[in-house]
Amino acid sequence: MNIAIVGSGYVGLVTGVCLASIGHRVICVDNDREKIKKLKEGHLTIYEPGLEEEMKRLMKQKRLSFNASVKEATQQSEVIFIAVGTPSKKNGDADLTYVENVVREIALHMDSYKLIVEKSTVPAETGKRIQRTIQLNLPRNSKVEFDVASNPEFLREGSAISDFMNPDRIVIGVESQRAERILREIYKPLKTKIVVTNINSAEMIKHASNSFLAMKISFINAIAQICDRVGADVLEVSEGMGLDKRIGRNFLDAGIGYGGSCFPKDVDAFIRLSEKSGYHFSLLNEVRNVNEKQKMSFVKLVEDKLWNLKDKVIGVWGLAFKPNTDDMRNAGSLDIIAALQQEGAKIRAYDPQAMGNAQKFLKNVNFCKDPYQVIKGCDCLLILTEWEEFSQVDFKKVIKDMRQAIIFDGRNMMALKDLKKMGFEYYGMGRGKA
Ligand code: NAD
Which domains does the chain have, with CATH numbers? Predict the structure, then answer.
């Protein structure tokens, strides 16, 4: 099938590459001309394991191409996926300006039947708005037929290709048999359960799923707070809870809270959608509050143990919002570093992939070339992203180079007992009385 993907970021690019790799002919579009230029040269604009090799292979086979023109892509494709950003407005609403702009442009250039598919995460009833925008913007007297569908994406950055290729389910929200038939055909090679709903339900499934996962994280973080007070270890609690199939172990990792480009904005947008519909979603408000408090309780712990922060040198391992990505959007490290700098602390930091993006967000940070360089002369070390690389570090060397051997592990990734035995003062999140 001939497919266009408009928006070539974390989701659009992965979707384009994966759809090409299961046999379709795909054009990835972006209005960022610099990005398109790099992609055409075979250079990836994001970090995602395995993506660049696969992209190059498919470009060579002429199954994947890049274009800055929505017009050309629309005219050469039957199906157009919209994968542009849907960031938060100040009031928490999803900002759908990019979606509207793209839809308007598609409508202007539709010369035959098109299926327009929402891949971006959008609030319920966006499909209706898209339909109306197309109607309003089609050239006068145009008789061209079209369908709108919703196909939310559940991939995770860092394991995006494997998530896309082996999904737990594919959700398609459709209002016509033709749209359903086309989407089934597109995803046929993936051999997974396809859940067919109406468009509003598909949109709701995405917001409800992300909100539920955020709720699990906030729940275990609240449990971690109690663990610290009563002398329990949240890792043991998660293990014991997670073995219950009704609960499951995933998303029960206590730490500095969730971040990234999805959970914070999607929870906010869902709260706003609920409010507008007349339902006050107090549970979800609390999910957000717990998450915000969690970051600040980590800062408080550091302040408590370091005494005065002014001119203290603090090392940070990990800046990205999660491992295996370079994405810094809403990363917990941003708020934590800002709060420590506010008190006069000096920050030295390292991240295996996110340093480039981090430099756009963080000021007055001494960026280092590896974990060992970070800890030189530090009064403490913070672990803010659980990169595998950090578990390979030689802590005997680390303890020699630090001024004070204190570790605050915001992701509970290190073995508490081992580090304590080596002479570190070690603080995790919810690991017992600190
Ligand atoms: P992103 O910012 O990485 O990519 C969006 C791209 O759209 C950018 O490259 C931007 O230049 C482009 N764009 C904006 N306006 C355009 C226009 N008018 N024409 C062409 N291109 C345009 O965003 P992302 O992380 O890929 O997220 C995209 C959507 O997918 C969001 O709604 C997000 O919530 C959702 N989503 C993201 C993830 C994730 O892990 N990142 C997972 C599931 C769903």
Answer: 2-197 (3.40.50.720), 230-427 (3.40.50.720)
